[in-house]
Structure formats: structure tokens, C-alpha cells
Amino acid sequence: MMKNRVPVREQKPEERVKNFKEVSFGYNQEEALREAERCLQCRNPRCVGACPVAINIPRFIQELKDGRIDKARDTIGEASNLPAVCGRVCPQEEQCEGKCIVGIKGEPVNIGKLERFVADWAMETGYKNTEKAPANGHKVAVVGSGPAGLTCAGDLAKLGYEVTIFEALHEPGGVLVYGIPEFRLPKETIVKEEIRLLKDLGVTIETNVIVGRTVTIESLFEEEGFEAVFIGSGAGLPMFMGIPGENANGVMSANEYLTRANLMKAFQEGYDTPISHGKHVAVVGAGNVAMDAARTAARLGAKASIVYRRSEKEIPARAEEVHHAIEEGIEMNLLTNPKEILVDERGFVKGMVCVKMELGEPDASGRRRPMEIEGSEFTMPCDSVIMSLGTSPNPLISSTTKGIETNRRGCILVKEESGATSLEGVFAGGDAVTGSATVILAMSAGKTAAKGIHEYLMGKEK
Amino acid sequence: MYKILRKKELVPNIYQMDIEAKRVAKSALPGQFVIVKVDERGERVPLTICDYDREEGSVSIVFQTLGASTQKLAEKEAGEEIRDFVGPLGNPSEVVTEDAEKLIDHRIVFIAGGVGTAPVYPQVKMLKDKGIKVDVIIGTKSRHTLILEEQFREVAENLYICTDDGSYGYHGLVTDQLKELLDAGEKNYDLCVAIGPMIMMKFVARLTKEYQLKTIVSLNPIMVDGTGMCGACRVTVGNEVKFACVDGPEFDGHLIHFDEAMRRQSMYKSQEGKKTIEKEQKDVHKDSGFCSLGEIAHDEK
């Protein structure tokens, strides 16, 4: 038994920081087979329990070993509608791989990269995902085409429902197209292809429709004949700090910066949307979104610095992303918090006053509370600041839908087992319910709601 | 894809287009806006809804060719399609959606500047239909840039036209005309609504504040998504930061931090200008389009 996993080939840091191509090349078939050999085929696999959508991991790995990659893809497809995405962006170290038994004495089986290999192989060889129940005559609307909506739509289509997804932006995919950068998740070859597989199931996607403005939940029921609605509108409302200078030119939310870069392709020649080309970009926050913004800035030629008020241990981003960011020369300013953004006479950012922090006693969340060290203020020179402090659900739907209950943070309240909201026939899941979380948790919520909707509509029929 | 049903050049460089967009036409109200993306590589440009026809399923936009994107839009002809047309966005105009009985004794003055004249027209028309009398002051560069004059003559109680060069109507700025009316004392306005360039709205608000005349402005900051997810359009209103796309676009003109808003609006000016110039230079071999370069240089200042 090999203790170490088969390494994954990657673009060298000094090369990849000059382009937007995918960092990781993934496994080729020979490497994938070697890595698959490391799986012990546990009778009670702990990895499956730790996967939010419970993919039968040992089975697909066995099928891969047997050389039946299409079967492996079918196995994954039973549980997941977006394997090429999840193989790339899941925090596997906290999920499947974190529980892998091989990981106790050596490195865990590289489940994510094996999933990615199977999904990519299937796409390249023209895999079709059309196995579904006969049409049952029921119409369901899905609001939002991010991971939660796509998953819910895919599962319902497989059950025979006529599903229409309404998307506010001009491209489907939600955070997969506007948030996660090209160098982690290629748009044309991966996201578009996964969405095409869903369309093969008969899912209709209508872009440029804002539920709450263009149509309302009420009108979907009353005028368009939908019998159930799933809200997977995400948590897209960015937070700002409220410090002086925050409205200066050159200060923007990570959502704005990443949307310009990813969705509008501002980094690419020939696209019309402009993007700020700062020389020194400070990114406030240390989640995955902050890493994405800093690494995007580096690729646009800037010196990029992360500014985070807690220590390395508390960094919320995936370990692999932090590692990649450091390799690419991103500067980490930990235990540091911005106090004020300095503005030049033209109204543009010229620097940021920060203060050093130390960690005090654990707070209610169990994390040690950062406190300012008196007299430690210093000025960081920078010409752009990207605020990556998290997001909350957009109130557009909850404010235009009578009778839908939300908590004080604007998150829609649902029954955990079915995703049902306080409004009959309306279900919700993903970041619209939890606030910003991960792709796979949104997918899991989409699956739960699809099941909930199916039970609700079948129950009604009786 | 969204079909251009009709296209008309109202005056040089200002175009009206009627776009087939059934869902938008069905729910649009005055004061709201749309976002237009001309083609695959285009940027998302916010444009105010000027009118809509629910039966035909069409929405009218009026725009001036200022940068690369509006130029690209202007090059499209009736019968052609644009890739994306999303809306209605923002909150409807409060004056127009307000209960008519509440407004019947009100004296309202609309100030319209440049291409902002277009969205004012349907609002004035709607108010007239409800029996509310409205005065209108239009500001424009010269008689050759004036749009919709005849239409306004039909719906406005009093129409005042101001030109910068004095080639037509009142020689001067809309604020000069408004000040004269207010000083004359005959016009006891209860409400002022200003739609036009940020600089015009700033000076209108400054003037009306002196007269304690409540003033509503419709802001036009830089936007990306228009649905509240990026904050590119944030403005300071009173002591609060608001997103113009979801909290606006209409705000109390006396509370807006206009200098900040204007500064933010110019954020990408030089980049936009640079891109346009690059494009123009590439096109020089096809046709010598040098005249528009001068305009861009002017715009960049």
C-alpha cells in the first residue's frame, strides 16, 4: 500500500500567475488508476457518510479500477448532478477525504481528483445523462441557477417533472460563473458542459428573469401554472465594513471584482467590461472568495495582499487555495484589521490604515476573539481594496413574497427534512437559507428540496 | 435574444429603440430601468425605461452614444436582436405610483436634462391622465439637441425650454430658469423631480434646498448586475450607504452626497475612453471615423 497519494500535475506558480488557465491538470487515466488502487474498499465506508450528497465512493472507485469509467460516472450521477464541479471545488479535507481510513496512517485517497477524472473523461467521450422517469405532467419552477437550483432541477427532471429555472443574470451557473475564477473552474469546458447535461434531461433555463421584479412567486403559481417553487437564489448581497473612505474609487466588493473578471470576462481581450488594474491590491478577509480575488488580482499584474483579523488557524478558506495563493506570491497579513481607507485628492485609494490584532478569549462561536493592540496602527500602501467579508441573502424575493418567513439575517426559514418554507408549495435551499456556505452544501439542500417537492406533489395527487 | 422592433434617431447621437421583451413590458413601471447587453462580449449597461406597451410586449429605451457600448447599440438596426435585456430593475417612481387624490392639489415641477428628458415624458403623461398638472423645465445644449418637444407641449401645463447656447427658448441653465420661477413667487411648487446628468441634479438640489422645496432625483451610477449583488452602484444618502439599483434609483436630492457620486461615476472613464479609442483606431482602416475621437477626448475631461 502506498502511503502517499499519486501527485497531481499542476501549472508552475511562476507560469500560472500570468494566465487564467486551470491551475491543476488533474489525473490522466494511468494516474487515476494508480490512485484508485489505494482505496481499501471499506465495508462500512466512512467517506460516504462524510459526503453531503452521499456518493457511493467505493463503488465508483471499484468501477474505475475495473476500467468501466462510464459505470463509475453513472454511480456518481445517482447522487450528484455536478461532479466535474464538485471534484474541483469541494473542501474534501473536511468531507469525504477527511474521514478516509487511509488518511489515518498516510494521505487519504484523493477522492476529489478521482471524481474529477471520471467526470471529465465522461464529458470528453460524449457521456449522456438522459435516464429519467416518464413525464408526470407536473410543473415546477426553480429560482436561481446556482448549485442548489441546478441540483434540485436535475433531480426533479429525473423524476419526470417539467422544470423551468429562472435566472436573473445572463448566464446560468450562479457562483460557478460569476464567483469562482476560471483558474479553479473553467467556464466553457466544465460549467457550460455540466449545465448542458442538465438540459439534456429536459430542464428549461430562462435567463434575464428576476423573480421579485420581472415575475413574482405569486404570478408563477397563478399565471404560469407552476405547482411548486424552489428558491435557490443564494446569498449575493455583499457586506461592507462601514469604515471611513470605503466609498473611494478603487474600493469594491469581492462580488463586483469577481463578477467583472469571471462573468464579464474583463480580463480577456475583446470584452467590453472594464476592471480596475491596481498595482497593489489589498483584499480584506480570508475566505475562499478572498483567495479568489487576491489570485485574480495577481493574474492582472498586481501585488496582492490578504488582510485578515484572525490568525492562520482560523482562516476559513480551503487549505489547497491558501497553499496555492502563497505559492503565487500573495502576501498574508494575519492578525491585521483595516481602520480607514486613505483617499487621494482625485478620490482614489492611496492606502489603508490597519491595526495589529491579538486573540483573546473564545467567544460564543468558540473562536478566539480578535482585539486591537493599542498603538500598533500602520499604513499599508495600496491603490485598490477588495472587501471580502461575506454576503447575506438578497431581500428581493422575501420582500415581494407575502407570507414567507425569514430570520433576522434575511435567511429564509425552512423545515430541515424537506426544505419547505412557511408558504405552501414553496421550498428553499442553499445560501438563501443558510447564508454563504459551500457549493456541495447547496447541492445537498437542492437534493433534499427535490425530494420534499416530490413528496408534496405526489401527496397532493392522492 | 430580444428583437429591436423600431429604431429612430431623435437628434444626432440620441436614439430611441423599442425592444420586444414581453416579461419586462408586463411588469414595468415608470422610474424603473433595464440592463442591456448588446452581444456576447458586451458589457451590462443600465438604461431608464422610457415607455412600455404591455399589449405589444415592448419596452422603449432612449440613449445617447457616449462610450463603446452605446455606440455598439446604436449600430444595431430594427429587426436585429440584442443578446440580453433584463428588468424591470429598481423601484418605480413614487410620484407616479402615488395615489392621485393625494397629489391633486400638488404643484409639481419636473426638471429634465439631456437624454434624461425621455424618461420624464411618460411620467408627466401619466400624471396628466390622472388630472395632475405638472410644469416641465427641459435643459439641452441647443435647439438641435432638443428631443420630444411636441410631445411635452401636449402633456405639460407649462413647458420651459432652456438651451446652453441660447439658440432656442431660455438662454441659460435649468437652475437659472427654476430660480426665476421660484423668485417670481407665482409658482408655489410642492415637489421637484430632477432627471438628467449628475451635475445638473446636484445644482438643482442645491438650489431647491435654499427654497426648502422637496426634490427627488433619479441616480445613474455605474452598475454591473443591477440586482444588489455587487455594490458598484453604492451612494451615500444622508449618513447611510445605499445601493442605487435596489434601494433607488430615486432618492431625496437633498440627502445625496453628489460629489462622491460623480467621482465614483468617473471611475472607469479613462479605461472606457481608452478602449473606445483602441477600437476606433482598429476601425480606421475601414472608415476614417476621426470625428468621434474628439468627442471621447471631451468626455474624458
UniProtKB/TrEMBL annotation, chain A:
Domain 4Fe-4S ferredoxin-type: from-to ranges: 30-60
Q: Which residues cross the membrane?
A: none
Top-level division of the source organism's lineage: Bacteria
Q: Which residues form the signal peptide?
A: none
Q: Give the matching Pfam families.
A: Fer4_20 (PF14691), Pyr_redox_2 (PF07992)
Against PANTHER family, the record matches this protein to: GLUTAMATE SYNTHASE [NADPH] SMALL CHAIN, GLUTAMATE SYNTHASE [NADPH] SMALL CHAIN-RELATED
User: What is the name attached to this protein's record?
Assistant: Glutamate synthase (NADPH/NADH) small chain
The source organism is: Proteiniclasticum ruminis
UniProtKB/TrEMBL annotation, chain B:
Cofactor stoichiometry and binding?
Binds 1 FAD per subunit.
Q: Which SUPFAM superfamilies match?
A: Ferredoxin reductase-like, C-terminal NADP-linked domain, Riboflavin synthase domain-like
Binding residues for [2Fe-2S] cluster: 230, 233, 245
Q: Which InterPro entries match?
A: Cyt_c3_hydrogenase_gsu, Dihydroorotate_DH_Fe-S-bd, FAD-bd_FR_type, FNR_nucleotide-bd, OxRdtase_FAD/NAD-bd, PyrK_electron_transfer, Riboflavin_synthase-like_b-brl
Which cofactors are named for this entry? FAD; [2Fe-2S] cluster
Instruction: Report any Pfam family annotated for this entry.
Output: NAD_binding_1
Q: Where does FAD bind?
A: 62-64
Out of the domains of life, which is the source?
Bacteria
Q: Where's the FAD-binding FR-type domain?
A: 1-95
- State the UniProt keywords alphabetically: 2Fe-2S, FAD, Flavoprotein, Iron, Iron-sulfur, Metal-binding
MF terms in GO:
2 iron, 2 sulfur cluster binding; flavin adenine dinucleotide binding; metal ion binding; oxidoreductase activity
Q: Which GO terms describe its biological process?
A: pyrimidine nucleotide biosynthetic process
Q: Which PANTHER family match?
A: DIHYDROOROTATE DEHYDROGENASE B (NAD(+)), ELECTRON TRANSFER SUBUNIT, DIHYDROOROTATE DEHYDROGENASE B (NAD(+)), ELECTRON TRANSFER SUBUNIT-RELATED
* Protein known as: Ferredoxin--NADP+ reductase
